[in-house]
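@channel sequence for tomorrow's demo:
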Amino acid sequence: MYADFSATDITCSGMIELLKTVEVGQQKNINVSTNLTPLVYIIPYIKYQLLDYPHDINLDEDTVTLDRLVFLYEIETLCIKMSVNNKKWDEREFGNFCKGLSILTVLNYLDLSHSNIGHIGVKHLSEAMVKMTQLRGIDLSHNDIGEPGAQILGKGFENMTMLEYLKLDHNNIGNAGAHMLSTGIAKMKQLWSLSLSHNNIGDFGAECLGHGLKTATRVEHIDISHNSIGNIGVECIMEGAENMKWLSHLDLCHYNIKDVDSHNLQTVMEKMTTLRVLDLSHNEIGDLYAECLSSGFQFMGQLSDLNLGHNIIGDIGGESISEGVETLALLGNLNLSFNRIGHVGAERLIKALKKMNWLRHMDLSHNNIGDMKAESLLQGVEELTWLQYLNLSHNKIGDEGICFLCHGIQKLTLLRHFDLSNNKIGDVGAESLSKKMENLSKLRHLDLSHNVICNIGLKSETKGVVSLRKLRHLDLSYNEISDSGVETLSAWIEKLVHLRYINIGHNKIGDFGSKIVGGVIQNLTRLRHLDLSYNNISDVGVDSISKGMELLSQLKYVDLSYNRIGDNGAETLSKLIENAHQIRVRELRSREDTFDISPVVKAKVMQLEYLDLSYNCITDHGVVSLSRIVGTLKLSLFVDLNHNNVHNMPDYIGARQERDMAGAAAHPTYVEYWQRSMSKHIGEVKSDQSSVPSYESDFSAGSESSDAIDSDQRSGESSGYDSSGSSVCSAEW
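structure tokens (generated this afternoon):
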């Protein structure tokens, strides 16, 4: 079983009284992540209790009774984190704690991550680990142990031959620390997972680790990413992994791998036949190194995930990589984004795609596919019947290219995420796309932002679009959709009843289009994010939109920034919030008339949490309208009024501000609302997005258990959009 005491700031005596209520021998695990003082003193006391001392033990003027704490001796998992308190251990306190740890001879897993123990704490810990012979896993990440701490750990690990899991991320151990650690790692015959990311390790440190890993034949997972390791260090690590018969995951991203010819690379890759995940992204791999990698892929028949994104692979390298990956029959994830693959590389990749029958995730964004390559790409895409994620953004694909692609895309019946943003798709391409999506019944995420779609493209038959019943994320921002285009766009949206995110910002909707949008969104009862920024909407348009928002109880984020909204619009929104509150109260009271409903009402009222009205024409009068509703109802609503015509704060608001500042902990967003709404707006200031709530998890496939949509496949999907929903722009009204 598992005992979790991390939810409260408990004192030493309180911890003891709590533990007395637990049956002896029942709890095998304990997690403490707030106040460490209780455990620091309790563990040393156990030693006396085991020696049958029947009386109270006095240690450092703290007297406790230990009649039922003997079960702590049998702890198997101990998780302690100081990050909540944001402070470092007291050296004397941690020393006592480590003395107590030394008697936990059956401890299997120790997690001290984010505890700021430093190299001094590591010294005490290494002394305790000598007696912890059953320890199988250690997590000391985010502790700033540095090179001195790593050297101490290296000596301590020499006696821990049974260790299986070691995580030391974010500790700045450097080359010297890696050198000392390698001596301890060499003794860990049972090690299966090693993580040393973000540690400023260079080639020398990688060479030492490579030597240490040669005897760790059971390792399955290696993560040494985000270091300063170059080509020589990479080969040393791979050489160290030659004898690992079960190695499945190798993360070498964010290195300093240069584009040089390496004849030794193929030799070391020949023996990595069990590798399933290889990450070489964020390096400087070019055509030469890509050719060497390609020759080694033929030996990696189990590889299922290959990430070569954010490199400088060009035509020749793309051609070489394509020749290598076509031998990977089990490849399910291919990432070649942010490269320089040209016409030749794309043509060769198309031939390779025909043999990748199991490919589920393909990212070719930020390349130069263009229309001509898109036509050829059709031949490969139509064979990818298992594809679920396709990203072709930033590729200069125009109408001609998308028309060819559509013929292949209509066969991707399992596709869930489709990104065509930042291309040159116009009306013809949008029309063709809308007709060919009839079979994409599982699509959840569609991004057509940053294109040149106007009106004509939206005037096609909606049969294909209506079939997208499960679509949750629709982004049409940064196009040229005007009033007349919105009228046809409504035919897209009104049938997509599961939509949760709509972004049609940075278009030309205007007040007439707002009226149409308001009439459509009222049927989208699951909508949570609505972005209508940069659309030339005035108070008249706000009135129409507000009517559509009245029944959207799940709506959390609304962006109406960079429009022409004035005081009347602010007052309309205030009434919307007030009416929604009253409707919710009446609804709850009609259902529950036997008890006081007020606590339930406070938890269930208006769901809106963020309203962006920045860069509009609201004056002090509009602020009063908003403040009256937000302040009276005590809603946790953040209203952004940056860059409006607000100058003076009325006395009524000032009196309330002083009272609410005292309760800032209870209503932080309300206080933030006042601080920002009353700021002077002179010149252009970059918008502060730090307080914008993040709803990314809300738009994931499995965010709501109540949704009966492909419940068997929820776990593998995420929305993949930026939750802030706004951008900093230079335009002013």
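heads up for whoever presents: The CA atoms of residues 166 and 194 lie 5 Å apart.
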